[in-house]
Amino acid sequence: MAGGSGQEDLFDSIFMSAERFRGEGYREGFERGTNRGLQDGRRHGASHGAKLSTEISFYYGFGITWKCLLQHKTDLKSRKRLKAVESLLGLIQSSPHDDPYSEKLREDMEKLRAKFRQVCSMLNVPTDFKDYIKASEGTSF
What we know:
This protein is mostly helical. Helix content is 82%, strand content 0%.
């Protein structure tokens, strides 16, 4: 009987080791997956944040440039254009772009893009931000 008990212990230890290895493998895989997910999420967030920052910076530079070009003109059409450009700049400055967790960020960006399209229409310039980025890709300093 003692030999039977030894065999049962042997089978139990083999069976339990398979369970233990499965559990350890699961935990190790979960940890690696969590770490990889955090790294991928961080990289994804940084990439989209950089794109958003580039877009906002472009709108700001666009607005400042047109404000400088229009501020000394006195005709009615130029005054309306200048007011629209100043409104675009006001939207940029009043939006909380430094808080990535802001619930209003998406809404503010949609308003900003709409205002940009309106200003471009008034100025008779292309409205697609991507066209401006493509044009500047060949520029090197």
